[in-house]
Amino acid sequence: MATFLFSNLFVFLHSSSLFLFLLLCSSNKSYGFQGKSTTLESMVLDHSHNLQTSSLLPSTVCKSSTEVINEKSSLPIIDKHGPCSGLNQDKENIAPSHAEILRQDQVRADSIHSMISLNSLGKTSLQSKPGISIGTGKYQVSLGFGSPKTVLSLVFDTASQLTWTQCQPCSGYCYDQREPIFNPSKSSSYSNILCPSATCNQISSQGMQRDCSSSSTCLYGVTYSNTTFSVGFLAKETLTTTSSDVFKGFLFGCGQRNRFPNGGRAAGVLGLGRGWFSLVSQTANKYKKVFSYCLPSSDESSGYLEFGSANLPSSIKYTPMSKSFDGTHYYGLDMIDISVGGEKLSIDRSVFSASGTVIDSASLITRLPPAAYGRVRNAFEAKMTKYPKAPAFENLGTCYDFSGNATVVMPTISLYFNGGVEMPIDARGILYFNKISQACLAFAKNGDDKDVMILGNFQQKGYEVVYDDANGRVGFATGRCS
Predict the structure, then answer these.
(1) Does 90 participate in catalysis according to the annotation?
(2) How would you write 394-440 as a 3-class SS string?
(3) Which end of the chain is less crowded, N or C, counting CB atoms within 10 A of the terminal residue's CB?
(4) Is 110 a residue of the active site?
């Protein structure tokens, strides 16, 4: 029976009728990267940050978070290229350049823009195009699959809904990953989804590739770019999220043909977006569609991903999710203004509403509409005149040379959202340092006024970000993220 299934899978993988599998002919190789972010010690003085330039030097030592992680409800988040990941000991895991980081992030932004369009009524629709680029695949968490469980590292992504991992026997192709590849034959709780079935039909209704033509086993195909995809069996398995929470019958992709060059040797993807297959939806009875994360504040620290609302801080400020993104995999927000140095820029709300805003765990740099970016840049430059300008760096156009300065003073920046929520950007999320002589304002300009704004993870540093999909809101809290 197994020989029959894998033989039919091979036929499915090479079917010319499915656009996904044409990607396998590409000889283009891409290696995704995430570079070293900066550790900045700062204090706010009169709407400015005073930064010690010595703190900008990279560290090779993993620092423990000052926040004690509740192992019963939380998972550590590791920066895949930081000293806490262990991957930096691998000679094949070459640290990326900052230029490569920003290029990968641009690919992610471009793919999000291509997937989202806002019509004149302000409603969002998904286009019939390949899925979201995984970008730099910066942050990873570890979960358990099977009985007994096999612990696997996955890139977590709030814009993807399907969770998948590589599976033996890898009848197509499997890339090199950190842990041993999951072997479903050694799990007593694994089972394939049959087809035709209502569950299998959900694959195509959720925007992924589905095939039942050559097998009684449901086959899926999900693609993120022309070099990143997974194809295999849709299956059920026991998933262990934390030390106390186990979910039987979790639907996931058991990948038989996979490419993930930007994954940092992760075993696959943890889908935390909105959608039928999302972990958020599948664990709703337990976690009530609530999860939160505190991203590592620097490469040498760790963060945490937490499920449910039991351990949330009381200081959360919530903004309603944007209705424009209902029915998509994205968590949308309504931004209404930006301030620089304590002064609101009074940007017309139509500038923000024309594009809409999504918050994304896997995008790095925040993307602004051209009109908003121009106002932010001008206000920032007006308060940075004491420092010489540096050349633009990739898509970051406002850069400075801090050579010879023991400290750097820069203005604060705050984002304002619907519901009266102000989000002061942490000092570590304002400047992107390529080197001391080239530090750039960490905001990029969209190519078009209607390209969706993206709130990237670089500007989420210092915050516990709470996603409460059941109540249609996203929250921000300070104090627990080191």
Answers:
(1) no
(2) CCECCEECCCCCCEEEEECEEEEECCCEEEECCHHHCEEEEECCEEE
(3) N
(4) no
